[in-house]
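Worked example 3 (structure in, sequence out).
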């Protein structure tokens, strides 16, 4: 029953007391006690948000991470873009785009497309799910702290929105040369961008570390 109560509690506090947090804007050091659900703690000096207690944080992060994994599978299982010109039809997928770039000699760009649109989102989604899902039952998965750190390091390399913006800009130039049809993979990738952003924003890092510490007690 203790594990269940921990999981349902809103931001449980470690037995050794609240942590300290430094303002990322003015470096003022603060005690970091839990705040009511749906509210945020702000710096006493400059007013910048230090951390937030987001409603249903574990459920939201777990759900959006799982949805991201499903969308990654759909993105790579269906065509991303279909081009029709002079009676010819070409289907393009993310894997094929990266492969063609490498084959044409643009190795760095091709590898970048593969890493930033496939590997990084997959690592983030799996990492967030691995860390947050067991916390729903008040338990920490083996090596959860290490996975949480690596997931945080991967976050800046998740560039789905940058790639999607680049695709849309390129399509404006290709539109006059061929008829373009967005495939299922494109819409799944757009959904992936939204779900990944929601999963990352679902739980505050301070809350996540407190939950991991309490689960290990």
């Amino acid at each position: 029953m203790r594990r269940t109560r921990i999981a349902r509690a809103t931001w449980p506090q470690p037995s050794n007391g609240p942590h300290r947090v430094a303002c990322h804007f003015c470096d003022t050091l603060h005690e970091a006690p839990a705040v009511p659900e749906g509210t945020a703690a702000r710096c006493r000096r400059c007013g910048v948000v230090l951390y937030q207690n987001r409603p249903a944080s574990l459920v939201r992060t777990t759900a959006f991470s799982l949805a991201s994994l499903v969308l990654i599978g759909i993105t790579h299982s269906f065509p991303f873009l279909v081009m029709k010109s002079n009676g010819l039809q070409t289907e393009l997928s993310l894997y094929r785009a990266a492969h063609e770039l490498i084959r044409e000699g643009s190795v760095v760009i091709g590898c970048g497309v593969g890493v930033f649109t496939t590997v990084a989102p997959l690592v983030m989604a799996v990492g967030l799910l691995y860390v947050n899902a067991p916390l729903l039952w008040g338990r920490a998965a083996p090596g959860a702290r290490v996975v949480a750190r690596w997931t945080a390091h991967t976050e800046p390399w998740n560039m789905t929105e940058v790639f999607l913006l680049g695709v849309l800009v390129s399509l404006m130039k290709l539109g006059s040369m061929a008829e373009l049809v967005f495939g299922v993979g494109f819409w799944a990738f757009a959904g992936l961008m939204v779900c990944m952003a929601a999963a990352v924003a679902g739980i505050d890092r301070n809350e996540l570390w407190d939950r991991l510490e309490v689960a290990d007690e």
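Notes: Residues 1-7 have pLDDT under 50 and may be disordered. The beta strands are 19-22, 29-32, 40-42, 49-52, 81-85, 88-92, 179-182.
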